Amino acid sequence: MEQLTRSDLLPLERYEAVRADFRSRVLDYKKAREVRIGTHAVLQFEDRFTVQYQIQEMLRSERLFEPGRVDEQLAAYNPLIPGPGEWKATLLLEFGDPAEREREVARLEGIERRVWVRVGDLEPVHGRPNEHLPPEEAGRPSAVHFLRFPLTEETVETVRRGAPIGVGIDHPDYNTAVDPLPEETRAALATDF
Fold this sequence. Notes:
This protein is of the alpha+beta class. It has helices at residues 12-31, 48-62, 67-77, 98-107, 135-138, 153-160, 183-190; strands at 34-37, 41-46, 86-93, 115-119, 125-126, 128-129, 144-150, 165-171, 174-178. Helices cover 39% and strands 24% of the residues. The strands form two sheets. Strands 1-2-3-7-6 form a five-stranded antiparallel sheet. A four-stranded antiparallel sheet has the order 5-4-8-9. The radius of gyration is 17 Å and the shape is globular.
């Protein structure tokens, strides 16, 4: 998928005028790309459209319009757009109480390296976490992680042929899966190729 540029983004005033409709379309679109894995983990598969929305919202909330500042946001978010033969996803660990979240995120240390996708009968592919972050940030406990799933050509072809897709987590303290994914989600992920 192509990276986003400034010309792909709406100016703040224009975005504000269409935001309600744009937001509604994105949230409906994201439903098919979101997988709840157990009680506390959500995997949101990203693409160009979902990343565009994130950038638009960041520009809006921070009131950023200077070209240099917009370019900073593009540089920060473009790495979330999948390249050829890969999926990218945001892993969210959700706990309502901040104290519980801090405790559980520490207990689930390393969970970001235990998230997998499986296509058909092929071997699972574990995500590569936080590759675009500086090493000092990539290794810190967090409730949000960015994962890249590099897929072989065989895996991509198997997706194209309509094989089921499963996702899961095999952490010792959080071991669960959604296998297979609902057809709506499988079909949405297949459009990435």
